[in-house]
């Protein structure tokens, strides 16, 4: 996998380079500030981009803006955004551009190497990878909506779906059968008014679209 990294912190940037190359991936380019990001992505057109939300010169949302601009220029570009904190507005804005091939992780997750690499590979494959803490924030900050009608188990299933987990993984994590997971998913979609007749990532995308208010 060819990856472009955009991160202003030199230590973390070099750590990401070492982590990815050690895992057999190619780092096509690195960027340390917003002006460097889009040119690098357009030149190398990587399989995935790993971008920090806050970058120079303003340290506000430069990395996110670069990610959104890149996805406009390169439709479907897989983007994994890293953030120091759960910032709901940034997560919602990224997902609002289409949830296919997007991820939003807290930087602490990078230290969990297997989880980080798994998330990056899912995003590069066109899937989703939302940090569990981000999903929790998106779910708990909404009030007076159909989420309130879900049972605790259905909320667990929805959260795992939003993280990008497939049915088999959900079943293993919750220690239930695949059939039980399918039933819970059907109930979730029925209560949220979302189509339940498709499989794979489309179900996850529908959930993310709902969480984003789409």
Write up what this structure looks like.
By secondary structure, the chain is an alpha/beta fold. The protein has 2 domains: 2-142, Response regulator (Rossmann fold), CATH 3.40.50; 146-213, Winged helix-like DNA-binding domain superfamily/Winged helix DNA-binding domain (Arc Repressor Mutant, subunit A, Orthogonal Bundle), CATH 1.10.10.10. Helices cover 52% and strands 14% of the residues. The chain contains 10 helices and 6 strands. The protein has helices at residues 10-22, 34-44, 62-73, 88-96, 113-124, 132-140, 152-162, 167-174, 178-192, 201-211, and strands at residues 2-6, 26-31, 48-52, 79-83, 102-106, 128-130. α2 runs parallel beside α3 (62-73), α7 packs across α9 (178-192) and α8 (167-174) packs across α9 (178-192). It is globular and about 45 Å long. The two termini are 31 Å apart.
